[in-house]
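In this section we walk through a basic example: taking a raw amino acid sequence and producing a predicted 3D structure, encoded as discrete structure tokens. The instruction is simple. Fold the sequence below.
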Amino acid sequence: MRSSDEIAAHKDELFQAVLNARPFKPLYVKLKVFYGCNLRCEMCNHWRDTREPPVSAERFKEVITELAELGTKKIHISGGEPTLRPQIPEFVELASSLGIKVTMTTNGTLITKEKAKRLVEAGLRGVNISIDSPIRKMHEKIRGVEGAFKTTTKAVGLFQRYKRKGKLTIRINTVVSRTNYQTLETLPDLAHELGADGINLIPVDDHCGEILSMRKKDIKLFNEEIAPKIAQRALELGLIVSDEEAYPFGQSEDEVRYGRAGRYAFGFYDSHPCYAPWTHSLIDFNGNVYVCCMTRERIPPLGNIIHQSFKEIWGGAAYRGIRLKMHPPALAACRRCDDFIGENKKIWETIGPY
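The resulting token sequence is shown next.
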């Protein structure tokens, strides 16, 4: 999420910013550059809805330059499916030239050898590719398009081929739901075979409804029979760094109770703040700015880059209002988020309680 070196070097400044609800630095920013998608995933609405046209490429480039001036160290590009925008290599190249690390999430189906090569040469440092099962039929059932497994797995191989031209980390993103959890035992083997550097198991979100959500008996079966095998094999292959990464719904009885309710922070934010409002931002395809993915469409936008500079939004009253609310107990949406817990623990240890 954030640069630990940057935080350690400016811990007093960050402490004062947190204490007084002032901005620090947008160290990590997500750019959702496109809303639409070419797949029909069962857990996603991007293909079901039609939205307004995205922010122009030129405006996104202006904002990337502004972010560099404000101290951004990492930009993560996503969508929808971001590669539906032809300017992605230009965004990557610009940000990289300004000293910003760039990563991206994609379903991989539109990646050709030319695109993979161009992205790596532009400076892409990390790519998360979505594979929801090591079994072709299950992946395509979830993704809603026949042939998606072949094109997605091919994309992993293409990035693996060209990663030698730059420093690129390839990770497999897998949303774990009632549909697919029983098929995931061999996911580490597939990831290793394709040349990926890591796997990331993501608990199905609460907006997906009861059909996809994990019931108590599903979590019990997953934790007892499937997650231990994933953990053992993934650790052997160096795809995860701790076995807890194989348990997205929690391991202990208390964690599983939270996980069953979709509260994937496992109670952490009942007594700790999330530092995202001081170090993170999300810029949506339509220019709306939010603290993070979890607050997107759950709270009003904090501003819009079409009408304002990002600096104005970052230091504005709406962002300050969120910072004031982030002292425990945090926003309701935070309780459902597991994205930043590790980083928040490190910041808590670095700057201390306030």
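Looking at the output, two observations stand out. The chain has a mean pLDDT of 94. The two ends are 22 Å apart (CA to CA). In the next section we compare this with other chains.
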